[in-house]
Request: fold
Amino acid sequence: MNPAVFDQIRTMASDLFGVPADRITATSSPETLENWDSVQHLNLVLALEEKFGMQLSPEEIEQMKSIGDTAKLIESKLQATPR
Amino acid sequence: MAIVIEPYRQEHEPAVQEFNRRLQQSSGDPDLVFSQRSVPRWLPPANNNPVWNEFFVAVEGSSVRGAYGLKQEMVLVRRKGMHKVACYHHPLSEGIIDRKYASVGALLARDALARQPFLYALGMGGSDRPIAKMLKVLGFSLTPIPFYFRVVHPYRFLLEMQALRQTRWRALAMSMAAVTGTGWLAIKSAQEASKLRGRTLDFVAEEIPEFSEWADEIWNKANGIVSMAAVRDAKTLRLLYRADVTSIKRLRVSRKGSAIGWAIIGQRRKDPKFGRMRVGSVVDCWAAPENAAAVVQAAAQALEKDGVDLIVSNQSHQVWCRAFESGGFLKGPSTFVFAASKKLTELLQPLEETRLSLHITRADGDGLPANF
Reply:
């Protein structure tokens, strides 16, 4: 996992979910972070799309089961994007 | 396993039943259910129907993890003509009971927007509720639709209105007001103060079994004053208020033998917030501005004759708001919210002005079969 991408997502999640960044790990998920509900999930999707300039498909949104999964998804999309 | 959203078909029905069972078991809320039938009972799709319902389910393998409905309809937008829009309703997600599925709510809302960008939602229990919050995140504009009420029997209202009796002291004060008659005096005074003084409106109201062509004339005569209204011509009204639906009444209001307007009235199903009161509702109405007050009065009189304790209505158009106020209705806090997608909001710009002439009532959206 690319640490730079992970850190950016962790910071984003920290702001959205109101949790200190150092408490967010790759395994953090809606089941472990109290404020990660359906509304915040949508906020996270929109924040990721804006930050990384990409569109997330329904299949990709559904893959975002944890911060680690989200970071892997974004990383693979960034790699697949022609520069 | 990936979640896929697809049209609700008969083969999904057992999985939807299982989904409902999980939701009810974990939440304890008996209202948390999606339609067990893939074909909507209200407004099923049919050839050439201008308004219909369709359902979608979020499927993961053999399980259903979410569902929603779209009510497809035509609306008239001032200076822009007829537009196809859809009402997003009954979104339900497994995320309510299992946070593993927190993504489903977002998937449902985005799927609905992809199917119909001119999307709206109505009601939702207030702008602080999860669905309204989610739609706001997606760029929807939220507009509360004013709520009006008229107390017919103050004694029962003071004793039964649970929102006024939430603490022991308030409950005691309300009971005292009911018993001593001071509450009656206060409510009647407030209602009379807003009423048209000394004006007797000349009209005849009759209950009709079904709408016919006279309603087209009234639709055409009055639709110039709205910034947006769902079509209410005779054909659409016959679908919305089918002759075999007996939980509502259709009133035709006439003057000197000519129809001048109509109203749909009904008694709301029991709701804990109203206690044991019989609550009547002016569900829908239509008339030219000069006849709105007569229609409101006709509807209120018919409900009073039916023995209701309280009459309620939600109205967005300023003409109808004034007509209700002049009919002795008081304005109360509203949790009935109109949420318009970005595309629909663009169509309604400038919303600050157009919102005053939107024609939105309790009959819009999805509430009709559930509430009456």
